[in-house]
């Protein structure tokens, strides 16, 4: 009797998600332009905005949309609307300041929604999620003040890492996790935040490695590897993502997170592609239905784009670390195709499921 309204509400959220997807495709094209591939003019002109498009406009939209659904307040949907609009404006060649302002409004909206969630449930994981939203705003502030997205990169990366870590931390309550594990987690998050504030790249890398090891040790994914079906698929996505995060930390300890370092591209994309998008692949069958009320039926075909992601990223990382430009550029193109393959697989499964 009450199912019609939630389903219609889910469909009304699709335009916001569509805004984020446009930013994703635009960000991918802008990234390919940076690698020397021929892309449409609008994407080539946005080559310097690859980071803001992918992190703020795409992930900012998706994460703030998920948070708005979680707290159930209409005003919270202004955050994904602002974030998605910032991406469209940047891709359209609009005023940079307007795009930056919209992205910052999105971050402020996410902070407000996170505070509501924190007040409803005072817990470590909700505090971490709020801190992650603050990191997004801090990165935007640096981007506005310096005009250089690279200066904001540590804060933007923390926005993604802490959002994922905070959500995974919540699930550790289902396990017999020792009390000292949470103390270690807080120490790692503190280290990461101070490292970003002090622009201490190697400290940041050490924190990334530490949180990867923490997740490998305490996350429920380690136990679910022995499961089957969707549960095992999610566990494989998460576990493999943690390995990429650890590699990003190891490369960063060698200086790869510093601007101009030859291994900066491998380090950043081991984190942003290997870790973050492995999380996206794994969480999509749960988050997408929660946001849109559209179910993604489980099928082993979901493993194919995950395998493509890891293999193509390995090509890119090897090309970057060995100084082989064509291998790195080829890997970058294949990375984009792996993401498109995942989207195509999801759409096919949804269509067949209906």
What's the arrangement of secondary structure elements?
Blueprint: H1 4-12, H2 14-34, H3 41-45, H4 50-71, H5 78-91, H6 96-120, H7 124-146, H8 149-171, H9 179-198, H10 201-218, H11 221-224, H12 229-253, H13 264-292, H14 303-322, H15 325-353
Strand content: under 5%
Number of self-contained structural domains: 2
Overall mean confidence score, pLDDT: 93
- How many individual β-strands? 0
Number of helices: 15
Throw out a few tags for this protein.
disordered N terminus; single chain; 81% helix; mainly alpha; 2 domains; 354 residues; globular; 15 helices
How would you summarize what this structure contains?
This protein is mostly helical and 354 residues long.
Description:
- This protein has 15 helices and no strands.
- By secondary structure, the chain is mostly helical.
- The protein folds into 2 domains: 10-144, no CATH class; 221-354.
- The protein is globular.
């Amino acid at each position: 009797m009450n199912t019609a309204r939630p389903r219609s509400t889910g469909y009304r959220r699709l335009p916001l998600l569509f805004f984020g997807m446009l930013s994703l495709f635009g960000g991918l094209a802008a990234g390919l332009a940076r690698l020397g591939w021929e892309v449409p003019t609008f994407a080539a002109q946005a080559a310097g905005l690859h980071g803001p498009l992918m992190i703020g406009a795409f992930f900012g939209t998706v994460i703030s949309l998920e948070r708005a659904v979680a707290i159930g307040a209409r005003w919270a949907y202004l955050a994904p609307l602002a974030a998605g609009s910032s991406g469209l404006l940047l891709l359209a060649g609009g005023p940079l300041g307007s795009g930056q302002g919209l992205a910052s409004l999105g971050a402020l909206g996410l902070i407000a929604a996170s505070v509501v969630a924190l007040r409803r449930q005072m817990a470590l994981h909700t505090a971490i999620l709020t801190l992650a939203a603050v990191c997004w705003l801090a990165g935007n502030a640096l981007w506005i003040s310096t005009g250089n997205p690279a200066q904001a990169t540590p804060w933007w990366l923390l926005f993604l890492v802490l959002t994922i870590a905070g959500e995974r931390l919540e699930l550790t309550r289902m396990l017999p996790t020792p009390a000292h594990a949470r103390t270690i987690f807080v120490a790692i998050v503190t280290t990461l935040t101070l490292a970003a504030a002090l622009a201490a790249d190697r400290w940041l890398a050490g924190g990334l490695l530490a949180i990867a090891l923490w997740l490998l040790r305490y996350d429920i994914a380690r136990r679910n590897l022995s499961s089957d079906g969707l549960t095992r698929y999610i566990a494989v996505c998460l576990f493999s993502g943690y390995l990429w995060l650890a590699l990003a930390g190891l490369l960063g300890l060698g200086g790869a997170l510093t601007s101009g370092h030859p291994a900066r591209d491998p380090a950043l994309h081991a984190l942003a592609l290997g870790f973050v998008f492995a999380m996206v692949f794994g969480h999509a069958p749960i988050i997408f239905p929660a946001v849109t009320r559209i179910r993604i039926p489980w099928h082993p075909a979901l493993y194919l784009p995950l395998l493509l992601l890891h293999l193509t990223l390995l090509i890119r990382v090897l090309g970057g670390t060995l100084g082989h430009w064509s291998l790195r550029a080829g890997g970058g193109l294949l990375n984009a195709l792996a993401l498109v393959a995942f989207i195509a697989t999801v759409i096919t499964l949804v269509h067949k499921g209906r």
